[in-house]
Every structure is written in C-alpha cells, then in structure tokens.
C-alpha cells in the first residue's frame, strides 16, 4: 500500500495549497507556481472554513496561507490560526505565511503556530517560488535577523512573569540530561551534523533525539525549540 503522506521524490511535484481571501492574489500565486516545473497547485480556498475542509482532502506538502483573511472570525491573524489547526491535524504539512504587513506580533504568532516561513506579498515572483521550494525541502525561511526579532519579542515583550516562571522547571524536567545538552546546541543554531560532531554521536541519533525533544516540549518546529532554549538561557543568566 502506498503512503500518500510520504515526501515527494525528485520525479514528483511539490504539492501546494493556497489560502487567500483576495481572488486576484490567489489566482496570481496559482499562475506563478503552476508555471514552474516541479510544482503543482492541488487546491485553494478563500477563507478559513474552506481551507480546513479542503487541505486534508488534497494532502499538499506546502500550504501558502494569507495571514489576514478579511472579515473571517479569526480576525487579523485568522490565517495563523488555520496554520495552527492544520499543523495539529497534519504534522507533516509545511506552512508558508504570506502577508501585506511587516508585523512582529504576527511573525511571532506564526512561528509559535508552527509556520516554516513568513514572507511579504511584496516579494517578487522568483523569490516566492524559491521560498516554496525552500520550505518544501525542510529548511526554514526565517533568516537570523528574523529569528533575532522573535527572540527579542520573547525577552522584551509584554511582561507576565507570574505564569511564565513555573514553566521553567517543568519544561526542563521533561528532558534527559543529554536532551538538555542538545537543546542548548539547537539554541546556538547548530545543525544536526554539527551537534553530532560536538557530542560524538551519529547524525541519525541526533535527529531521533531532536524529534523526542520536540515531542516532549509540545512544539512542532526546531525554531520553536531554539526559542525555548534561548528563553531558558536568558532566565538562568
């Protein structure tokens, strides 16, 4: 029996779903992507309800999601809530957020919802195609400057220490000493190979350990674990 959720091989196109409440934008993105070899648009939606119904049925690898969906009940960040819900249902799905606004709050929420990338609609066509290919390959579209902004938001955002302080030991207590060590190295931005070399482990072992760390921390993306590592490091310094 074939596994429809398995990643595509070199001969199979990247399957993409598009969510945007503006038909002109949606058609433009679709035409742009479908003109590219190795990319197939398998569905589209104009609101959150349609997206949540259609994405599981079409089984895309990448969902390009508009952050703001007009009058949708989710408000200005309705697309981010779609990302969160879809990632909960389909952990293998990669989400690329598309927005007209450079909004740090939306960027932070998108990353915490499990998005792999966040690009502005002002992006040119070639760069958008590149972004889709990048996130489909498993690489984050969040550059170091973007990550630094999110880390600054974590450190200097609205103060609410009372609920946050008890979280510190509970997060660490879920991890073994070796997993804590790996989490620290993730926070430093090391790749799997670099972590393996630093700790004298097989790269596959590191990959398996990181999967366990993400599961224990209740997050779906490496960058979310990196932010937790950074937050814990800040609090202990």
UniProtKB/TrEMBL annotation:
CDD domains linked to this entry: LuxR_C_like (cd06170), REC_NarL-like (cd17535)
SMART domains: HTH_LUXR (SM00421), REC (SM00448)
Keywords: DNA-binding, Phosphoprotein, Transcription, Transcription regulation
Domain Response regulatory, residue spans: 15-136
Domain of life: Bacteria
One Pfam entry name: Response_reg
TM ranges: none
Domain HTH luxR-type: 168-233
GO molecular function, one term: DNA binding
Modified residues (4-aspartylphosphate): 66
Name the UniProt record assigns to this protein: Response regulator transcription factor
């Amino acid at each position: 029996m074939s596994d429809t959720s398995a990643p595509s091989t070199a001969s199979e196109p990247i399957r993409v779903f598009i969510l945007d409440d503006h038909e002109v934008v949606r058609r433009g993105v679709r035409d742009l992507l479908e003109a590219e070899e190795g990319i197939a648009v398998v569905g589209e939606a104009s609101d959150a309800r349609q997206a949540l119904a259609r994405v599981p049925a079409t089984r895309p690898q990448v969902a390009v999601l508009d952050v703001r969906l007009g009058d949708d009940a989710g408000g200005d960040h309705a697309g981010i809530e779609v990302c969160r819900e879809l990632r909960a249902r389909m952990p293998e799905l990669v989400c690329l957020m598309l927005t007209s606004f450079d909004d740090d709050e939306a960027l932070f929420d998108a990353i915490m919802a499990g998005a792999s990338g966040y690009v502005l609609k002002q992006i040119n066509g070639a760069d958008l195609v590149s972004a889709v290919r990048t996130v489909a390959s498993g690489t984050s579209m969040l550059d170091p400057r973007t990550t630094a902004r999110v880390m600054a938001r974590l450190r200097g955002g609205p103060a609410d220490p009372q609920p946050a302080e008890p979280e510190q030991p509970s997060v660490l207590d879920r991890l073994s000493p070796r997993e804590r060590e790996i989490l620290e190295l993730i926070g430093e931005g090391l790749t799997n190979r670099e972590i393996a070399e630093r700790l004298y482990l097989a790269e596959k072992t590191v990959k398996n350990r990181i999967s366990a760390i993400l599961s224990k921390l209740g997050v779906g993306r490496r960058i979310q674990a990196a932010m937790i590592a950074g937050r814990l490091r800040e609090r202990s310094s």
